[in-house]
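FIELD: query
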Amino acid sequence: MNKFPVGKIRNVCIMGQGSSGKTSLVEAMLYNAGASERLGKVVDGTTVCDYDPEEIKRKFSINASLAPFEWKGNKINVIDTPGYLDFVGEAYGAVKACDGVVIVLSGNSGVSVGSENAWELAKSEGLPVICFVNKVDHENANFINVVNSLKEVFGNSIAPFRIPIKEDLKITGYVNLVTMKAYKVEGNKETEIEIPTDMLDQVKEMREALCEAVAETSEELMEKYFEGIEFTEEEMRNALRIGVRNGDIVPVYGGSATENIGVTFLQDAIVKYFPSPDESTRVLKDSKGEELDLKADDSGQLAAIVFKTFSDPYVGKMSLFRVYSGTIKADSSVYNPNKDATEKIGHIYILRGKKQIEVSEIGAGDIGVVTKLVATTTGDTLTQKQNPVTLAQIEFPRPNLSMAVLPKAKGDEEKISAGLTKLTEEDPTFAVYNNLETRQTIISGIGEMHLEVIVSKLQSKFGTSVTLSEPKVAYRETIRKKVKAEGKHKKQTGGHGQYGHVFIEFEPGDQEDLVFEEKIFGGAVPKNYIPAVEKGLRECIQKGVLAGYPVVNLKATLVDGSYHPVDSSEMAFKVAASIAYKEGLKNASPVLLEPIGSLKVIVPESNMGDIIGDINKRRGRILGMNPIGGGKSMVEAEVPMAEMHKYATDLRSITQGRGKFTFDFVRYEEAPANIAQKVIEESKVEEE
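FIELD: result
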């Protein structure tokens, strides 16, 4: 593929609800541009972008996929992103590389949570948007209804540019609202026709809305609008270009991706209305949040960001990057300020799905891939060591559903650990850690399907099978009253015996860790054995007397004891301390403590009642409810962590995917008697 000047490049992210037809739309674009010889189908597993075995098997996108093509003298880098919420992290990386977003909607279902999330993400990045209503040829599809619902949700910036003409479930032509002309389409041939009479009212209404949007782009046009003077076609096009780039106007197109109808109009619109990298209005920030003055210039200061990392079975680690300024050349070196590492750039490629096209360099504004970077991970900056630039990191959603991993075959632990670590490099929304307390390997992701795909990848890529189970909750134990306990260890087995004898006072402490003191008078316990008593107690507090959980907030004071000049030893006093510990804690009103977390959940106000009811069912305490605008509110609460295992799934169900939450541990509290009894019984069964 030829190198294009920065003004001829368009970087576009395709986003929207799952099953809206995003991958099919990209497939049609590639076919129209001659970059693909046939129209592949998702159901057949023959598309350019869905090439991963998991995507072919499941028949939906899991990974963001790059698909560049040439269109009328321009290079369009399209990034196809998954629509399902479990893989939303792929879109967060992709938008960092783009200067415009195409939101794809289904003509059957209209605005959905996927399109709402895409809109929010595009606006948070300051990117212009074009909407494409797909599947307009379906029986229940209604382009006008979708446009109206877009206006209801996203406001008056929504403006259809072309309205499809539909006859007997077929799209036979379109009305161009910019020129106010209608055309009948037969193959590649367009014939101008009269605007259908049954569409006249809708066309006039939408044309009026379009003219109003155009008028708002300048005072001069606003005056013409109020004076009732028609805009010229040139005035319309220039104003629309400005309005779209500023985000004040959102064009809407309609068509059918699988039938390749209306797709070329969208491709033309991307070139006409989306900015090139040197015209982009997005604000670049550094790692400190300060704005950067970087120009998209091949000869400028090098600044590129790695927005996706993945592994190729033949090549190894591959890093997709977007160059904001400067040029990355093959067989050169770059500096990664995030890792303070110099990276060797070997071969550079342009990717189209899984196809690798080798090039000698990637210039400003363009997107490429480099192989075998050692230290660099997703979100890192590539720059020059002298006068380096560090771009702001990509803020990915936090993983919020956790499961424990159990190997199906003994001896697979190392393979599982290595596989999971590699998968975390590819997916910033996936995390893995070892819980030393519960002795479980915990994996965390966005949702159940996300973790299901991770398990499937472990099997296919690393040849190891696992099962998932609910993670154990890390409870604690403590005491509520002061007691004095005796611990005596006496054993005679010929030769030297064993003798250790202590009296220890146990009481609630004010520190999480054990507080140990000694008040020994007259050498009842020699000083050289006192550390052994403390050591014995520190080993004991790892396991409480109720359910075997660690003991916290405990103060132990060694007050008396006795010793034998020959048979006493450090070991004997350790054992004596453990005897006193078990006896003392049983009589000190031991209680079970459960971990409590701080929940912050953002939900549509229409779901507030259901959310509060659900939190109450989980034994949660509501701390506050605050409107945050946009028809949403934040609920703050404290909830026992034992009740939150499936919250990510349940919240999605209650809010149809519109709710978001964070949940962090804050402290331990005494568990209710019925909960404590259940946990104690379960631990006894497990021990047996």
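FIELD: remark
The chain has 16 helices and 34 strands.
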